[in-house]
Write a structure and sequence with these properties.
Helix content is 30%, strand content 34%.
């Protein structure tokens, strides 16, 4: 099978059969190197057969910081990823590194498929993906779910929802320490405007949002914006 490009450069977040999601960051340094790395990734993958062992999709995003790339891949399970590492990863990375020397592979986190999602209600194509990363002080699966449930309660009771948001997909890390919200927005500016409204974050000044923002045990995380650049999946 060949690797084929998805026309909208985005994965199918509701795809069946996903058992593991990997999210990683590369630091490449400049906007020019971002684009060069994406081109090198596309070439390395499209010139080889798709590794038909449980990899469902592989997507890459350009960081709005002009320095980083985000990688989001969907797998059937952890064993499929380990087999990919053992047999297919090194030659692809070697070709990419030869084209763009000095790539720093910063971090990789493992997540379950979305625990809860706020699906798109229309056919808008997102111009921006906002990644909200929340880190807790210790593993606790119940706390991960409770935090996400609190976000949904805050959204459902918000008297003035912000415009520009399209969808949100909340992933729980497999080690119990993190939550990642993969949120699609109309544009980077729409998210910037949402953050500029009164209050802390994109929500209104409600008790529900205050509970989310002051949740006990949250020790880290951040909010980063990306532009969809490349999404690959198996083709005929």
């Amino acid at each position: 099978m060949n690797a084929v490009l998805r026309a909208d450069a985005r994965p199918d977040l509701a795809r069946p059969g996903v058992g593991l999601v990997l999210v990683s960051t590369w630091r490449v340094g400049t906007p020019e190197r971002q684009r060069a790395a994406v081109d090198a990734i596309a070439k390395a993958w499209q010139s080889r057969d798709w590794p038909d062992l449980g990899l469902l999709s592989y997507s890459v995003y350009l960081g709005a910081d002009g320095e980083t790339l985000l990688h989001y891949s969907q797998w059937t399970d952890a064993e499929a990823y380990q087999e990919f590492v053992r047999t297919f990863r090194d030659d692809r990375n070697a070709e990419i590194d030869a084209a763009v020397p000095g790539i720093e592979r910063v971090v990789l986190h493992r997540f379950a498929p979305p625990y809860r999602s706020l699906p798109a209600q229309d056919a808008r194509i997102p111009g921006c993906v906002v990644v909200v990363d929340v880190e807790f002080d210790a593993p606790d699966a119940a706390r991960q779910r409770d935090w996400v449930d609190g976000v949904f309660e805050a959204m459902e009771t918000d008297p003035a929802p912000v415009p520009g948001g399209i969808s949100g997909h909340f992933h729980l890390s497999t080690d119990g320490t993190r939550v990642l919200n993969y949120a699609e927005w109309e544009s980077e500016q729409a998210h910037i405007d949402a953050l500029a409204r009164p209050g802390d974050g994109v929500g209104s000044a409600t008790p529900q949002w205050a509970k989310v923002q002051s949740y006990p045990g949250v020790v880290g995380g951040g909010v980063r914006r990306y532009a969809p650049a490349l999404s690959l999946q198996a083709g005929a």
